[in-house]
Amino acid sequence: MVAAVLGLGLVTACAPGSDGDKPASKAPAAVSTDVAKAGNVTLTVWDQEIQGGQRKQIETLNARFQARYPNVKINRVARSFTDLQKTLRLALSGDDPPDVVQANQGYAAMGQVVKGGLLLPLDSYDQVYGWKKRYPKGLTDLNSVTPDGTSIGGGKLYGVSLNGEIVGIYYNKDKLAKIGIQPPKTWAEFEQALGTAKSKGELPLAFGNLEKLPAMQMYGVIQDQTAGKEAVRNLVFGKSGSWTDQPNVQAAQKLADWAEQGYLTKDANAIKWDDTPVNFAKGQGVFMVGGTWWAADLKDKLGDKVGFMLPPPAQAGGAPVTMGGESLPFSITAKSRHPDVAAAYINFITSPEAMDVSVETGNLPALAPPSRQPDGTVMKEIAAAWAELSKSDGITPYIDYATPNLADTFGGPLQRLLAGKATPQQALGDAQKDYAEFLKKK
């Protein structure tokens, strides 16, 4: 047993289990913050930070952590978001799981692996590092789950996030100028702009939906406008409402109309999500609905030719609303042989220094950076949008949080909707059936 001082007081520290060579199965009663005294450690980290700005960010932070703690070697395994989610549960239940992983929020990912006892609750580490004091409650709630995995937004803390996220609308400034319109100020003006772009021979919206999730995000952006933020929040968190409520059906009808009118990339269901910003940067599309995680790459390729705006409200000057929150949290696996080092790593890559690195690499930090300011027009627009949404409480949750299977039970029907093979009522009916069955089991 040793003691360490980390500016937060004296912390009693001991091995996580009675046998130091066995993986920890639950959070240790006492923790060590002394990474240097942990001995030579290889910390295996699985992340999905593969986009340009995200990749630079995590590579920089990993290098700085290893420089600070030469006894630690980080074995980084980078996977796409889709590949990570597909392989995560199998990897965590195996005999040699990684130490740190990014487990997506919501019932489908974090809820399921917590229910299976595959992640370590972080509350004892939070007492040392003070994450809940550092982050607003709304953000730590997104990474909190009851141990049985049945309720998100409460229970124990299972992860900490580095970046903020907004799903907004990117636009090509040159193309807007070419077709003679300004960035729209209202939702009606945005729809008019889509029609104008189509009539002038331009693709209105760059869009790829092979993985199903992009259509759910596109639908969610529309749903925020038709249903409003409180109804969307209540629906996603199982408090009230039905997927077959008229505003939700109306949103699906709008998405179907956009597809039928040729506003979306042809054969979008066959195009990969990650190819969408690549195609947009090549000049395909006047607009693109997408997350802030694509901003750094678009800035590198388009410079000041790319702009970013929040989905415009119904009335000019009204309060905007859109989905977002925070990036995939970093979590400690239940079988990690080095949970104390893993916790120190998570603390470092979500520290104030990390928020500065987030800005430096073209990302949107979850918390205000202590010294850095965004560089470039699009990054400044995103920072301003984040501040505006935070001030007006305009962020809604990702709709796939609603049930463990909604990405399939609604994502699949949305693919068929886009292909003209399902009606809005059929797509929403499938979502509601899954939703009702899930709520019944809770």
Explained architecture:
By secondary structure, this protein is of the alpha/beta class. The protein folds into 2 domains: 173 residues, D-Maltodextrin-Binding Protein, domain 2 (3-Layer(aba) Sandwich), CATH 3.40.190.10; 218 residues, Periplasmic binding protein-like II (D-Maltodextrin-Binding Protein, domain 2, 3-Layer(aba) Sandwich), CATH 3.40.190. 44% of the residues lie in helices and 13% in strands. The chain is built from 19 helices and 13 strands. Strands 8, 9, 10, 11 and 13 form a 5-stranded mixed sheet that branches. A 4-stranded mixed sheet has the order 4-3-5-12, sandwiched between helices. The chain has a two-stranded antiparallel ribbon with strand order 1-2. Strand 1 and strand 2 form a beta hairpin. Helix 9 crosses helix 11, helix 11 packs across helix 19 and helix 18 runs antiparallel to helix 19. The chain is globular, with a radius of gyration of 22 Å. The N terminus is likely disordered.
